[in-house]
Amino acid sequence: MTRKVPVVENIFKANDQLAQANRNLLDQTRTFAINFMASPGAGKTSVILRTIEALKDKYRLAGIDGDLASTLDADRIAATGIPAVQINTGGTCHLDAVMVQNALPKIDLPNIDVFIIENVGNLICPANFALGVHINVLVASVPEGDDKPYKYPTMYRGVQALLLNKVDLLPYFDFDLDYFRKGVEALNPGLAFFPVSAKTGEGFGEWFAWLQGQIDAFLQTANG
Amino acid sequence: MTRKVPVVENIFKANDQLAQANRNLLDQTRTFAINFMASPGAGKTSVILRTIEALKDKYRLAGIDGDLASTLDADRIAATGIPAVQINTGGTCHLDAVMVQNALPKIDLPNIDVFIIENVGNLICPANFALGVHINVLVASVPEGDDKPYKYPTMYRGVQALLLNKVDLLPYFDFDLDYFRKGVEALNPGLAFFPVSAKTGEGFGEWFAWLQGQIDAFLQTANG
Would you say residue B216 has pLDDT above 90? Predict the structure, then answer.
């Protein structure tokens, strides 16, 4: 295993360079990019669909969707009427910068304000591969349990916003919200936090308001 | 990225050789080894705790527990009174054969009948790294959604048993059991399948009976 570490470092370094190139391109085309990450089944796609519905009359949107296999999620996103591209990683546990770089030419970036990336369902690997986006968002969910910040610290450390989905299910789970928040706060103090339910719509108003603030700030700077 | 593929192949090959060495050692000491895998929050640890309670009067048990960080799960397993070892992978998304090899000397294998491994919470990476166990078990859960076999085929293809946990929550989720089963059956025909609830205990009788059949068959062969 002695050979493993330097190789992994090379991959991360090459990835970071490509991520920077993606970021430069997105900045040039004044496109705000969001990377959604989550464990399988946390409700990433449902959260994204609600977010698209809230934003699509104000901004020009596009999305790409990463999965090991299938186009189930990209199909759901395309059904909202926005341009969507599926990336099948064929076994890799995360999107990386080169996959995004290869997908970007399929999007008409100069005419897109907000570019939404749905990463592969995984709490570990995606945290290690920068894509070049402007914000990283983690969708956690009540059924996963309140101990996840303690067990998956890298993911919780690297995001700019955290949605806790499926809060409508809190009565059916032994989920200690204070314990969860304490774990998050230790890793990522002051992290923007939104308890939501993609099923009922609860809590999304705050998330939309915060996200629009981020997008508008970016577009104003980019326009200036 | 051209350099990546051969390196990954080398890692897999080296891993497979070490897994075979682990398997030989376990066979020599007549220890039946089980590798539990699942998405974060599917209830792996709860399923394992119920399994330990059911088996511990009949067999001599030990366990190891893989996590990125923390000893939360190994502490819960040790609380049952069986020897338990924590492996912290420090960021790696799976256990591999060398981690197990390094942990085995900490277990008194000649005096252990059943060795339980709890892998890192992840639906992708653990499927690619053989550990040398006798059976691989996947714990799925209702809140994850019924589309997971379609989206994570490698994991569903590589296991000898599948538990669907949290079936007590079926009334609260749009989970189509037929769609789920159809996806599983296409990938892994005839797979042993156990709908259970670690919360209520529902369905565990069938799982315990099947597992004991596997263990007894192994121990008889090993003794013969």
Answer: yes
